[in-house]
User: What shape does this take?
Amino acid sequence: MSSCQAVAPGKIILFGEHAVVYGRPAIAVPVSQVQATANLHPVAAGGLRVVAPDLKRDYRLTDAAPDDALSQIIRLTLVRLGQPVLPNAVLTVSSTIPLGRGLGSGAAISAAICRVLARWYDQPLAPAEVSSLVYEVEKLYHGTPSGIDNTVIAYEQPVYFIKGRPIERLVVPRPFTLVVGDTGIVAPTHQVVGDLRRRWEGERERYEAYFGQIGAIAVRARTLIEHGVDSTELGRLMNDNQALLEEVGVSSPALERLIAVARQAGALGAKLSGAGRGGNMIALIEPQPEVVQAVTTALEQAGAAGVLVTEVTA
Ligand code: PMV
Assistant: This one.
C-alpha cells in the first residue's frame, strides 16, 4: 500500500436551517475554501494509529473510547468496504474548517476519512454511500440531524434538501457571492437543536407556523436561484429568514451585530448559517471588488474571528 489522501469541503446553509429538521426544505452549498483532509500512511505493523492535531488526539484505534467520533466513522467505513482487519497505517486528520461554527467541520472530517479508506483499498464509494456513512455518525452526535450536512458535503454540489427525500441538485445559472463572518463562538449543534425541540414541544402550533414560513422562503429562494434572477430579492429573503430564526430563538447578539454591520456596509441581505447561537453568519453581496472590500472590512472591524468570501456556482 502507498500513502493516500482525501479531502472534503465545508458547507454553508443558505436557507432553511432548523426548519429542515421538521421536514421543511433547505438549501445548502459546499465551500471549497475550507476543507478537511485525511492522510493514510503505511507502517510496518501495529494496526491503525489516528493522529488529529486540531483535535489534540493521537491514539491507536484499538484504544479509542466507544463514543469516539473518528473511530466510529473508521469502523463503519471498514465494515462497508468488507475489511475486517485494521490496516497497518497512520491516519492523519486535519481541517481548516473552524470547529463547531456551522460550517460542517464534523461531517467534512468524517467524509474525508471515508474517502481515504476507500482509496486505500481501491474501492471507490459513491457520494450516496459516503453521505449515508457520515449520516450514521452525525446521528450519534447530533441527536436528530436532518442529513443536510452529510448530503451537501458528500455530493459537493449545491442542494435543495428535504429530510428523507432523494437529493435534488440545485442549478445555479448565475453565480453569486457570499461573505461569511465568524462570531468565534462555538455553539454545539445538538444543544441548539435540542433547546428548540423543547420549545417546539411546548408550543407546536406556533413553531410549526414559523417552520412553514421558513420552508416557504426556501422554496422561493430556489426559484430565484434557478432562474438566475437579480439578487436583490434573494437578499430580502435572507433577511426574512433571519427574522424568523430570531423568532424561534436560535440567533444571538453576536450574530445580529455582524449581520447588521454587513447590511450597513452594503450587503443585499444577511442571516446566520447553521445551528446559530454562535458560529457563522452569511451576507449576500454584489460581486464588485469595492463591495467585497467594504463588507469584509466592516465585519473585521466589528470583531469577526474570521471572514471568507465565496462564490456559489454549480
Ligand atoms: O450547525 P450545523 O452546521 O451542524 O448545521 C445544523 C443545521 C440544522 O438545521 C440546525 C440541524 C440539521 O440537522 O439540519
Summary: Residues 13, 17-18, 20-21, 102, 104, 142, 145-146, 148-149, 189, 193, 274-275 surround PMV (CB under 6 Å). The longest strand covers residues 26-42. The CA atoms of residues 73 and 110 lie 6 Å apart. The radius of gyration is 20 Å.
